[in-house]
Amino acid sequence: MTRLNSVRLLLNASVALAAIAAAPAVAQTAPTPPTAEPAVAQESSDIVVTARRRAETLLDVPIAVTAFSADRLEKAGVADLTEIQNVTPNTTLKDARGTNSTLAAFIRGVGQQDPVPGFEAGIGIYLDDVYLNRPQAAVLDVYEVERIEVLRGPQGTLYGRNTIGGAVKYVTKRLGDTPEASFKASYGSFNQADGIVSLSTPIGSLFKVGVSGARLTRDGFGRNTNLNIDNYNKNVWAGRGTIEFASPDGRLSLRLTGDYTEDKSNARNGSRLITSLLTATPVQSNPFDTRAGLNNPRQNIQAGGLSLVATGELTDNLTLKSISAFRKDRSFTPIDFDALPAVDVDVPAVYRNEQTSQEFQLAYKSDKLNGLVGFYYLGAKASTGFDVLLSTTLPNFDAYTAGDVRTETSSIFADFTYDFTSQWSLSLGGRYTWDQRRSYIFRASYFGATSEFGGNPTLIGAPSTDFRGTATFKRFTPRASLSFKPTADHLLYASYSEGFKGGGFDPRGSGASAPDVNQDGVRSYQEIYNFLLFKPEVVKSYEIGWKGALFDKRLTFALDGFYSDYSNVQVPGSVGCVIGGVASFCGITTNAAKATIKGVELESNAVLARDFAGAGSSVTLAGTLGYISAKYKTFIGPTGTDVANSRVFQNTPDWTLSSTLGATLPAGPGKINASTTVSYRSLTHQFETASPFLDQPGYALWDAHLTYTFGKGRYSVGVHAKNITDKHYKTSGYQFIRTDLAGTPTNLANVPVPNGPYVPTLGREGIATAFYGNPRQVFGTITAKF
Q: How confident is the model at residue 753 (pLDDT cuts 50, 70, 90)?
């Protein structure tokens, strides 16, 4: 059965099932559609979230959750998903190295930086309850959004595999009951020019339709001085269409949504941190500039999907929900590791992903017992092809790698909460998952680029790897929490949860590098299989928390502490290697580590003054704090020795802090809202080995926002300033420089040489290339709603 036929079948089945489920209840009355989600309240404790797959206020959820309403996102000028990391404890959301739209996400020390298809993300990204199986095109632009939720800690029971660090839920806006139109325009630094248009209307009494489109553009923060094009620019088209249906009695509802994004921004290339070792090319003064020479293939990312959510209310207590989805994306990108005109570790690359998913939920609600049981299926395929051009090794030499990973996973799950009294509640849940991986890995050396990237190559010898393997993993992931509400405005809870991240085969691995275990002079299939295979990661987490509201909700807070056992930690990496006597590029992935992670998180919001300058005036102070201590207990290095003492957690600063001072004042026919935020992140390591090149010392960012809203909230104008001090800070990078176990650069005699000269481990120019967060930006916005 083709993927297209599969998704058609799932969509048809969803409609039919929901209709059958709702049929017996047609004669009954239910004034509120079951899929309608309550509007977000102004008080942070009253924000409604669906962290447990049912609508609850933040104060009632025994989970560490940060929620961002549409109003909060708009007033803070948030452009895409990565920006919320600054005000979310123990969370890192960033563009993955040389990309504009691939997401690298880490929560509580767990995540995945490498986007190749053999590895899962560790943080689940959900678009309207549809799991995005791959990180490509997951840096979602914020438009027509209702809220964003960040769930911290393992969510393996309700959200499945690959949510061992947490989950991020992007919830789009529901259509209104009357015709609506909205327009938003932005203009600012670097010629930023954005436009968003949304239209929706009811059709008769049963249907609603809506469309929205976004055009997002910006000149580069720097220049590619070699190719004479912008670097770090933005050139995005995006659109979304929705059809909603609700039966007259409100017991049956359907929501069909389609979205599409095309990103034609230039390839984002890094800036060198050291003088090139072969040509002595100096470092550029602007960290956003590059001299990268690779321009094939032309950068282009296309992504889209279709989802159907069907809900039928069987009785006043039972509701059946179906979520059917199909998604597809393709990313062509040139990755120039050395950031020089030289063909020295230049990587033309393509990523292709496709997924079909189906989820059924049967929810039960009553005065004492609430919860659901469900079934989930995902069929996905992800493939990549990339040339590694190493013409400084041999003239026109290409180490080609292709990986193809097919995933079939299904699970059954249940989660219920029983209220013993109005104060005491117990939640129990579990999920059993079957996870199968089928991988194909091909590696060969050529003279010239492969035909996938427009070349006509000549094969050098026989392929070094031509591997097919299948692996099946099964896992039960439980969750339990005990909650106590001493008063209506306070919640104390203790919980235990588990999660796992899928295993697989390293799609960049070299079968020729597999050890000859039995010393018979031949690398058997089983020896290659064992070498390329890595097992699932597992996190077991304990958490206690206290959520509360004081002084008539003028002060709200959420405090939690957690401890996690992290085992079978997957450690992916890429190194210079020798295949057939020729220097090449290889991936090495092992389950090398065990670790413990513990930390504390605090979020608070205080109303310092209310109605002091007229009705509706206020002064607020919000703050977040995250502290995490993540330590490897064991870490088996490439020589077989335990190097845990010299290994660190990547993308996991010990401290994440933020403070936001805000004020609202009546002014004429409207009101002024002003806010300023200072956020801080301590020392951040980019890889498990400390790097004097790439590690980012602690830094602070300062943002400020001013908006004026009038016409009963229909119109607004705003001015936003981000990174006001123009702080330059590294977010990621590449390094292929010889170091000792602690990460200190060494020469061939293994003598520390912290000031150089450096010894390259891949290519000849020496690769220490960094990517940076956005510089200072100032822009204005105009919004109109009709």
A: low
Cα 157 to Cα 114: distance, rounded to the nearest angstrom:
25
What string of DSSP letters covers 531-594? HHEEPPEEEEEEEEEEEEEETTTTEEEEEEEEEEEEEEEEEEEEEEEEETTEEEEEEEEEEEEE
Q: How far apart are CA 620 and CA 296, in angstroms?
A: 51
Q: Cis omega before residue 297 (within 30°)? A: yes
pLDDT number for residue 29: 33
Dump pLDDT digits (tens) for 223-265: 999 999 999 999 999 999 999 999 999 999 999 999 999 999 9
The Cα 441–Cα 328 span in angstroms is 22
Q: What is the mean pLDDT of residues 717-727?
A: 98
Distance CA 717, CA 403 (A): 49
The model's pTM: 0.92
Q: 744 pLDDT band (50/70/90 cuts)? A: confident
Strands 123-127, 130-131: parallel, antiparallel or unpaired by DSSP?
A: antiparallel
Q: Say whether the peptide bond before residue 536 is cis (omega within 30 degrees of 0).
A: no
- The sign of the CA dihedral 198, 182, 209, 56 is positive
CA separation for the pair 646, 668 (Å, rounded): 61
Q: What are phi and psi of 558, to 5 degrees?
A: -140, 115
Cβ neighbours of 337 (radius 10 Å): 28
Beta strand pairing call for 234-246 and 192-203:
unpaired
Give the C-alpha separation, 87 to 678, whole Å.
Answer: 9
- Among the listed residues 405, 382, 257, 401, the one whose alpha carbon sits nearest the alpha carbon of residue 331: 382
Cβ atoms of 61 and 570 within 8 Å: the answer is no
Q: What is the helix (H) or strand (E) element at residue 13, kind and residue range?
A: helix 3-22
Q: List all residues 6 or more positions away from 37 whose beta carbon is below 8 Å from its beta carbon.
A: 48, 50, 55, 146, 171, 174
Mention every residue, 6+ apart, whose C-beta is less than 8 A from residue 97.
Answer: 104, 113, 270, 335, 732, 733, 734, 771
Residue 516: is its pLDDT beyond 90?
A: no
Question: Measured between alpha carbons, how far is 63 from 494 in angstroms, rounded to an integer?
Answer: 9
Three-state DSSP class for 179?
coil
- Nearest one of 578, 477, 466 to 155, comparing CA atoms: 477
Q: Are 618 and 605 a contacting pair, CB within 8 Å?
A: no
Going by pLDDT thresholds of 50, 70 and 90, the confidence category of residue 511 is confident
d(C-alpha 428, C-alpha 396), whole Å: 60
Phi, then psi, of 19 in degrees rounded to 5: -65, -45
Q: How far is 64 from 46, CA to CA, in rounded Å? A: 15
Instruction: Tokens for 165, please give them.
Output: 């660090």
Residues 7, 9, 13, 15, Cα dihedral to 10°:
60
SS3 sequence of 258-295: EEEEEECCCCCCCEECCCCCCCCCCCCCCCCCECCCCC
pLDDT digits (tens, 9 = 90+) for 115-128: 888 888 889 999 99
Of 441, 434, 444, 501, the residue nearest 471 (C-alpha): 434
When pLDDT is averaged across residues 332-339 and rounded to a whole number, the result is 94
Backbone phi and psi for residue 714, each to the nearest 5 degrees, phi listed first: -80, -25
Angle 522-525-529 from CA coordinates, rounded to 5°: 125
Nearest-CA neighbor of 497 among 155, 169, 152? 155
Query: How many Cα neighbours within 13 Å face the side chain of 534?
Result: 28
- Cα(240)–Cα(144) distance, integer angstroms: 9
